[in-house]
Design the sequence.
């Protein structure tokens, strides 16, 4: 449609509404009402929606949507407010009805239509119009030709697709519910396990452990326990009142014969029984069911016979007519007497019966001519002659239907299949050698003076010959040639059938059915029948029509005999019942709809009675032909108990993963009871500290749990006699997994979230009390009125990072952060100097307010420590690092609070002091020594002073550490750590040491890095601590890792799943950072554009990912362009690698695509590609042999500079690469990988991981394995067969998400090598652009090179 392709004259896509009303025609399918009404979340009925939208004008919001994946058709979203913060939302596509050459009608075809709550007026890329709607059926030509609709469509089509929109209230509720749900799900994993058996403890030395340890095996066998539960149910209730009960592996139920509500005591007892085996009474229990049946009368022969008998009696007594009526209702009466039968039926049974005349005759029609057999006759004769059977005769039978072969040899039944013949029968014949008086012989047919048997086997022929000899003593018989009758497998030419039908069909009289070659004649009389036959024979004289006499019959039919009519009656009854009660009823049709079983679940007596009334009312109209009955007028009651599947019924691997992180405790029966009482009283908030810790779970194999036991539990079993518990007693107890670490972390998030969603004196308040507003809508953040340019000048006058002077975007980010009152947002694409900006923000903040307190935080320790590295040694800056030092990078360990404390407490000169000496206080002492005066006149005093500093005695340590902590102004910790007791205590000791009261941590500025990977609950915890927050991330890199299924289940667990009912897959990938960044006012949003990490060629491979951002008007800029090609490793900005191995690599190549076309292989729900693993090994061999590689390796001293990073997008591929590179590694070597990472074929340090683990890292050389391919292995009969994998874009897998490719490609500084299928990945235009910019080579060329 050409006129819809023109762009509108105006660019203003968000126009005010005019007085003009636009008519919108919505095309819907026939089943639209049913589908809409089936959605339980829709409060209105479809009929009401139609009425609301078509009754009055409404202000509507139009947005362009992603094109349909199937046919690439454009789609629009229409949001139609209907009041009370609710709206109708529909996804539509343009529909055109062509009326004639000059006229077209336009409408919208509805793809989806539903009600939505929490409606906020959209502002992003939205067209607002005054509309009235009209519904039309999809198959009817209807629509509008009005210009205002055309202009509206063009306006929407020309707009951008709105990527993100803010819905503050809804988002707030989603994430508040989510953290609560997380706690609930963890608590569900903490189910109590009944011990079935315990073996004696044993000692063993496990691989990688130096000392022997004690282990114990605890078994759980539920089979006997399930049987016990059934017995317990019987004991609890009277068997006479139970209809049924049972316990299966994952479900138990108790069904009572009558309606019954359990008393509280009975309910508690049933709950306790279920708890023993982790069965929980379902939320829907009890459910009450009333059931019954609707049954058609006279649906069986017995009930019909009574009616037939009555009719026979009436015919006899009233008309003196004798007749018989068959089971099928056919009547044996002369046609002249039929009116008498019709009179009886009409007067007495009109509501029930009818008399039907059956005057239809069915005749087979044959179009065979016999010509085909004549043609085949000589062919078959020639074939027999060629086989030496020249005495055989071949002829066509007189009726022209069969070909007769007479031959004195055996002929297989399929011998002439290839010639289009199939066997009809064979005849074996026997003739006496002299004249005899023949006689009948049982089992042998006599024809003239010849005996014969048909289709006989060799044994049957021999038996027949023997039988003849017995019956005719002294007479010998000879076998005549066997006769074989064959028929032609001819198919009648379809054209012949069609022509016959066209010539002979006469409406209401004759009809020819092609499929069965049957002629159907409906005649009024015998004469009419004969006339029709004559007419047809005259029209087609070559057709052979079966001969049958015309003999009309009369049948008594019951009105319920026809299934379609029964079905119609039942459908009507069902609809009336459903309409009346407004709830679901289960109907089950049996015996061809002669009986309908129904079942209805009710909650109250009133609901039950209303249902019964609805059934009786709906059936009353049809009482004469059906009966309705209830199985039990009061209904039945069922209680269901479902197994908690988190630990027992999930996949074994998943269960092991869940509980491997758990702490297991042993409970005595008394403690188990106390736990139950606590849970009963406090629910999920119950705190229970009883029980003895068993130890660490080593392995779970079905019902066997292997633990490395604690000393306390060992003492319980093997201790002194008076303190020991026998195994027989232990077997009576229980074990319980607990997740203290996980629950602690979730608890912190819940407390922080409460400060945002429900700030009050009980929950507390965030430091910045405007946070609850701007965290979910950045437009709520306060804005500064200070001039930005003026602020930039102030920053430039006191720069700590001189390079910023020439970096306008970095300078802008610093200035906007300093001006911000509540919030600043900074986007940092790969390598654009985020840590440099962070360092400058810290410096400028402290310069202006030396007593300011700052917090650096992120989801990951790596990001926190990267920021610390940048501020190392900076004036004014005194950082302290809080958290588990074992998880820190080396840069973070220097500032570790724990390390500093351990160093202070270590004895002077001890090994411990040396071990902890790499810390910030110790480095400060060293700096003081270096800066001591060099003047001769102070030499003696300085020497003495240095000696004292070198000694680092208690006084020196105490003095310097006290001074350091006194001036600490930067805290650094991960998000989760910010809510820990350790964090609070360190804050108290550092800033409130002399205060008696303990205060909540509070910072003047919180800097959150890598925020695009964080969910709101992860963001919230540190942000609640800041007066002002700066959030840094990049929504073009990895989004939050949210499992759609788990997320939905979590919200469902707290009854809040409807909050995400309209979420798509894309919604899960939108981070809170992206929502804030794209919706925030521009005066506190900044994007960094100049990258300093990677060579320009590598940067060009990712630059297209940022081409759509208006904030980056010049795209990504290479900040090292002038120096990146300098052939000197010592030049900081040089990205020269100096490697050469033609045709694989030259010194000018920095981005290489190695084409590998091997098929991918599915592993569970993930993928791997063995061919790419071999290709990586080939690439590494070529690299190590390349000219310049040895010099390259020798130059770099730090492991991370030498390391080659290998990145992939799938866990199985990562694991397979690791195995291929380190095939001999044991668990111990993997556990201590850093010490063994050179132990591979190439003697190179390798860093192998998934892309998620690589974000935030960089390496000189990166190899990326893309895994996916346009061929995929499929297993058939034990063999792997490659098949096509071409359902794009889905065939790209994770690579559909450009953020993942962006992160993978952008980790490389000097050399990026991508291993993958070029044709496959070129199906996405952005990747095709990247590949075009790379040096491309096939893996076969590299293989030839290293040979």
Sequence:
């Amino acid at each position: 449609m050409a006129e819809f392709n023109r762009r509108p004259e105006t660019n203003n896509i968000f126009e005010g509404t005019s007085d003009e009303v636009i008519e919108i025609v919505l095309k819907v399918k026939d089943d639209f009402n049913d589908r809409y009404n089936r959605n339980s979340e829709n409060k209105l009925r479809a009929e009401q929606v139609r009425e609301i939208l078509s009754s009055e004008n409404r202000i509507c919001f139009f947005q362009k949507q992603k094109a349909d994946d199937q046919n690439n058709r454009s789609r629009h979203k229409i949001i139609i407010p209907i009041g009370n913060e609710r709206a109708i939302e529909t996804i539509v596509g343009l529909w055109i009805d062509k009326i004639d050459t000059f006229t077209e009608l336009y409408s919208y075809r509805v793809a989806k239509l539903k009600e939505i709550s929490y409606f906020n007026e959209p502002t992003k890329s939205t067209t607002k119009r005054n509309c009235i709607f009209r519904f039309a059926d999809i198959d009817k030509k209807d629509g509008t030709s009005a210009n205002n609709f055309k202009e509206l469509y063009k306006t929407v089509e020309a707009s951008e697709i709105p990527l993100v929109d803010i819905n503050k209230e809804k988002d707030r509720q989603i994430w508040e519910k989510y953290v609560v749900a997380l706690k609930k799900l963890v608590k569900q994993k903490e189910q109590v396990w009944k011990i079935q058996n315990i073996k004696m403890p044993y000692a063993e030395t496990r691989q990688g452990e130096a000392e022997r340890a004690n282990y114990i095996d605890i078994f759980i066998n539920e089979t006997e326990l399930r049987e016990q539960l059934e017995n317990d149910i019987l004991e609890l209730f009277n068997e006479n009142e139970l209809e049924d009960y049972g316990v299966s592996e994952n479900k138990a139920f108790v069904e009572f014969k009558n309606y019954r509500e359990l008393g509280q005591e009975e309910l508690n007892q049933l709950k306790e029984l279920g708890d023993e085996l982790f069965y929980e009474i379902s939320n829907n229990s009890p459910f009450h069911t009333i059931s019954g049946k609707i049954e058609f009368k006279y649906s069986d022969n017995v009930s019909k016979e009574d009616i037939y008998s009555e009719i026979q009696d009436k015919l006899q007594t009233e008309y003196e007519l004798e007749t018989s009526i068959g089971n099928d209702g056919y009547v044996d009466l002369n046609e002249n007497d039929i009116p008498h039968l019709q009179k009886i039926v009409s007067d007495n049974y009109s509501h029930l019966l009818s008399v039907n005349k059956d005057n239809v005759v069915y005749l087979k029609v044959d179009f065979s001519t016999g010509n085909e057999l004549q043609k085949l006759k000589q062919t078959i004769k020639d074939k027999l002659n060629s086989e030496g059977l020249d005495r055989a005769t071949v002829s066509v039978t007189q009726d022209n239907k069969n070909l007769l072969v007479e031959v004195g040899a055996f002929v297989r039944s399929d011998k002439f299949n290839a010639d289009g013949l199939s066997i009809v029968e064979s005849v074996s014949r026997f003739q006496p050698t002299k004249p005899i008086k023949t006689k009948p012989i049982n089992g042998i047919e006599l024809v003239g003076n010849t005996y014969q048997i048909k289709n006989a086997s060799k044994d049957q022929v021999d038996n027949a010959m023997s039988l003849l000899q017995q019956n005719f003593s002294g007479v010998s018989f000879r076998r005549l040639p066997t006769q074989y009758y064959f028929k032609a497998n001819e198919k009648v030419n379809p054209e012949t059938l069609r022509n016959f039908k066209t010539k002979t069909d006469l409406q209401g009289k004759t009809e020819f059915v092609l499929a069965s070659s049957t002629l159907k004649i409906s005649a009024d009389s015998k004469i009419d029948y004969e006339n029709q036959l004559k007419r047809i024979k005259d029209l087609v004289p070559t057709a052979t029509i079966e001969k049958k006499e015309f003999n009309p019959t009369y049948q008594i039919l019951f009105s319920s005999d026809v299934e379609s009519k029964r079905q119609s009656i039942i459908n009507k009854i069902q609809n009336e019942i459903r309409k009346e009660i407004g709830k679901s009823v289960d109907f089950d049709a049996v015996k061809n709809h002669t009986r309908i079983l129904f079942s209805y679940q009710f909650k109250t007596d009133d609901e039950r009675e209303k249902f019964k009334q609805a059934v009786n009312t709906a059936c009353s109209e049809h009482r004469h032909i059906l009966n309705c009955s209830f199985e039990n007028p009061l209904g039945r009651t069922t209680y269901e108990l479902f197994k908690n599947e988190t630990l027992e019924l999930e996949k074994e691997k998943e269960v092991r993963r869940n509980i491997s992180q758990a702490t297991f405790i042993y409970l005595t029966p008394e403690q188990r009871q106390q736990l139950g009482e606590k849970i009963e009283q406090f629910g999920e908030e119950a705190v229970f500290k009883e029980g003895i810790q068993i130890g660490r779970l080593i392995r779970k194999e079905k019902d066997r749990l292997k633990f490395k036991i604690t000393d306390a539990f060992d003492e319980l079993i093997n201790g002194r006699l008076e303190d020991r518990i026998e195994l027989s007693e232990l077997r009576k107890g229980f074990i319980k997994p607990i997740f203290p670490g996980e629950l602690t972390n979730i608890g912190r998030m819940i407390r922080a979230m409460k400060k945002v969603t429900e700030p009050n004196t009980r929950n507390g308040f965030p430091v910045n009390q405007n946070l609850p507003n701007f965290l979910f809508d950045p437009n709520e953040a306060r804005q500064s009125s200070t001039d930005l340019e003026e602020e930039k000048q102030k920053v430039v006058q006191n720069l700590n990072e001189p390079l910023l002077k020439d970096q306008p975007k970095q300078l802008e980010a610093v200035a906007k952060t300093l001006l911000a009152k509540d919030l600043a947002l900074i986007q940092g694409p790969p390598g654009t100097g985020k840590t440099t900006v962070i360092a400058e923000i810290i410096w400028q903040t402290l310069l202006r307010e030396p007593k300011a307190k700052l917090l650096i935080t992120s989801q990951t320790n790596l990001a926190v420590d990267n920021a610390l590295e940048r501020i190392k040694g900076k004036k004014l800056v005194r950082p302290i690092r809080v958290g588990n030092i074992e998880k820190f990078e080396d840069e973070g360990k220097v500032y570790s609070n724990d390390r500093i404390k351990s160093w202070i407490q270590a004895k002077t000169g001890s090994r411990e002091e040396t071990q902890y000496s790499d810390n910030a206080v110790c480095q400060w002492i060293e700096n003081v020594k270096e800066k001591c005066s060099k003047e001769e006149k102070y030499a003696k005093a300085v020497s003495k002073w240095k000696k004292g500093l070198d000694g680092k005695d208690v006084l020196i340590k105490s003095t310097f550490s006290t001074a350091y902590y006194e001036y600490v102004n930067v805290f650094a910790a991960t998000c989760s750590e910010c809510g820990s007791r350790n964090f609070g205590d360190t804050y108290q000791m550092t800033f409130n040491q002399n205060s008696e009261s303990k205060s909540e941590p509070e910072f003047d500025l919180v800097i959150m890095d890598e925020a695009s990977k964080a969910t709101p609950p992860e963001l919230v915890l540190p942000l609640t601590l800041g007066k002002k927050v700066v959030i840094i991330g990049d929504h073009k890199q990895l989004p939050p890792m949210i499992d759609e299924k788990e997320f939905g289940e979590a919200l469902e667990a707290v009854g809040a799943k409807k909050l995400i009912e309209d979420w798509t897959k894309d919604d899960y990938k939108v981070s809170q950072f992206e929502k804030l960044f794209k919706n925030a006012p521009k005066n506190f949003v900044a994007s960094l554009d100049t990258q300093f990490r990677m060579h320009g060629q590598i940067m060009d491979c990712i630059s297209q990912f940022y081409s759509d951002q208006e904030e980056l008007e010049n795209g990504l800029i290479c900040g090292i362009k002038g120096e990146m090609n300098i052939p000197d490793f010592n030049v900081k900005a040089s990205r020269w690698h100096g490697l050469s191995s033609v045709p694989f690599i030259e010194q000018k190549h920095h981005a290489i695509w190695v084409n590998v076309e091997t098929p991918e292989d599915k592993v569970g729900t993930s993928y791997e590609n063995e061919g790419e693993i071999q290709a990586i090994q080939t690439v590494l061999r070529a690299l190590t042999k390349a000219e310049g590689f040895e010099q390259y390796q020798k130059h770099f001293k730090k492991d991370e500079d030498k390391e080659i990073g290998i990145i992939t997008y799938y866990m199985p591929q990562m694991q397979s690469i690791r195995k291929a590179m380190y095939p001999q590694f044991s668990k111990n070597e993997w556990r201590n990988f850093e010490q063994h990472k050179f132990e591979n074929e190439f003697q190179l340090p390798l860093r192998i991981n998934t892309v998620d683990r690589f974000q935030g890292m960089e390496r000189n050389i990166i190899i990326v394995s893309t895994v996916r391919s346009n061929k995929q292995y499929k297993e058939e009969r034990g063999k792997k067969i490659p098949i096509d994998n071409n359902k794009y874009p889905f065939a790209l897998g994770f690579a559909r998400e450009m953020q993942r490719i962006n992160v993978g490609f952008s980790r490389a500084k000097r050399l990026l090598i991508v291993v993958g299928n070029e044709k496959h990945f070129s199906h996405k235009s952005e990747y095709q652009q990247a590949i075009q910019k790379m040096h491309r080579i096939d893996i076969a060329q590299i293989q030839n090179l290293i040979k």
About this structure: The chain has 47 helices and 54 strands. Confidence is low (pLDDT under 50) at residues 1-16, 646-652.
